[in-house]
Amino acid sequence: MTANSEGDRDPLFFRDRDWHPAAYTPGYKTSMTRAPFRPLVALGSTLSEETGPAFGQSMIGALDNNLILNFTGQPAIGERIILHGRVLDETGRGVPNVLVEIWQANAGGRYRHKKDGYLAPLDPNFGGCGRTLTGPDGSYEFLTVRPGAYPWPNRVNDWRPMHVHLSVFGSGFGQRLITQMYFEGDPLIARCPIVRTIGQEKAIEALVAPLDMNRAIPMDCLAYKFDVVLRGRRQSLFENRREGM
Amino acid sequence: MQPLDYLKETPSQTAGPFVHIGLTPNKLGIGGVYPQDLGDSPIREEAKGQQITIVGTVRDGAGMILRDALIESWQADAAGIYPGNDPRGAADPNVGGWARIIADFDTGEWVLKTIKPGAVPYPDGRMMAPHISLWIVARGINLGLQTRVHFEDEDNSACPVLGRIEHRDRVQTLIAKKTGPDNYRFDIVLQGENETVFFDI
Ligand SMILES: [Fe+2]
């Protein structure tokens, strides 16, 4: 692990919980027994959330961000895409050197998981996971195939839109975030009960990646851009300074 | 009026049932992509302090033990210093502080082998009782849940965070029970009777 820089220890912005999905969302049935019923105990961030793990480049392999090749070395089947963007915080600063991990179904909508029994076949050359560290400006990039939509047991005929799961670290444990990115123009987005756990239309839009022809590579792959925003950090001369700062 | 030009945090979505593909592929049997999963241990063997084992489960509102829960833990070293960016100095080099823990696919039990952390200051300088922060995700959890493990054999009476819990009978949901000289049990209840305290931090 490597050290984070100074300033990466200020108090965190408060989380806007009306922007995030609620815990109890009956349209997504599993949430009904897994949502806490008691109110959360409100607490400003402490050192325990302002600090967090850091990851070094030495942990990352050369093909880790290439899901087309990283399973067997032979190319996976599907529509080749670059998925790129930046990890920013709420003040708009890029967040460098943080770990971004992704996982997804293959081009047919099938996960490499014993609990996924969907009809679509496994691709022998697609594992379904990738990871990378953000650059100095917070940028990241993956090469993958566009995942297929797939049905899931919820209501009788629910389908997940095409999506990639993302797990992102900040410099503080309280910034930890898992989310999903969707693809511009997918008509299943508006019909998805998991998407609809989010109440505000603008928040849903923040999860939809636009096609980015500037980053497409002619005769090779298309590109989609997806920025991730983590909680910001509050800087004030008037903030109570802790011992040792 | 001028606009406030802050960005909004990216909204959370559930980790879903297949989170292990992304975060612990080797434990799922997807070998060959990464040499090993990240976060297998928060410490090295030589870490200073009392080596402890915490065992627990995550249970839902219907009393079912989750087999798909994934937990991450973050803690200070035995002296109460966080690795990496703690403003008070460098932590024990044998303490990474972070672990990724998964419920057993068959029994749902999870295990964390670590060292007991030291007390850490609250922003006003009072000391928070020794604790390990947990972040819990799974299918059906729309936004990762934040809680803390405290220890039955520590003095938790003056902890400013535990002191914020209005319903005093709920404090015990954050206290790991001692089951042996170096062993603790910490069962997490997502909903209903004995529901664990979760924080909005
Ligand atoms: Fe998925």
UniProtKB/TrEMBL annotation, chain A:
GO terms, molecular function: ferric iron binding; protocatechuate 3,4-dioxygenase activity
Top-level division of the source organism's lineage: Bacteria
Any Gene Ontology biological process: 3,4-dihydroxybenzoate catabolic process
Assigned keywords, A-Z: Dioxygenase, Oxidoreductase
Domain Intradiol ring-cleavage dioxygenases intervals: 83-111
InterPro entries linked to this entry: Intradiol_dOase_C (IPR000627), Intradiol_dOase_core (IPR015889), Intradiol_RC_Dioxygenase (IPR050770), PCDO_beta_N (IPR024756), Protocat_dOase_b (IPR012785)
UniProt KW Oxidoreductase keyword: yes
Keyword Metal-binding: no
Similarity comment text for this entry: Belongs to the intradiol ring-cleavage dioxygenase family.
Name the UniProt record assigns to this protein: Protocatechuate 3,4-dioxygenase subunit beta
UniProtKB/TrEMBL annotation, chain B:
Acetylation listed as a keyword: no
Ranges where the Intradiol ring-cleavage dioxygenases domain occurs: 45-192
PANTHER family: DIOXYGENASE, PUTATIVE (AFU_ORTHOLOGUE AFUA_2G02910)-RELATED (PTHR33711), PROTOCATECHUATE 3,4-DIOXYGENASE ALPHA CHAIN (PTHR33711:SF9)
InterPro entries: Intradiol_dOase_C (IPR000627), Intradiol_dOase_core (IPR015889), Intradiol_RC_Dioxygenase (IPR050770), Protocat_dOase_a (IPR012786)
One of the record's GO molecular function terms: ferric iron binding
Membership in a protein family: Belongs to the intradiol ring-cleavage dioxygenase family.
Keyword set includes Oxidoreductase: yes
Protein name: Protocatechuate 3,4-dioxygenase subunit alpha
This protein's encoding gene: pcaG
Keywords, sorted A to Z: Dioxygenase, Oxidoreductase
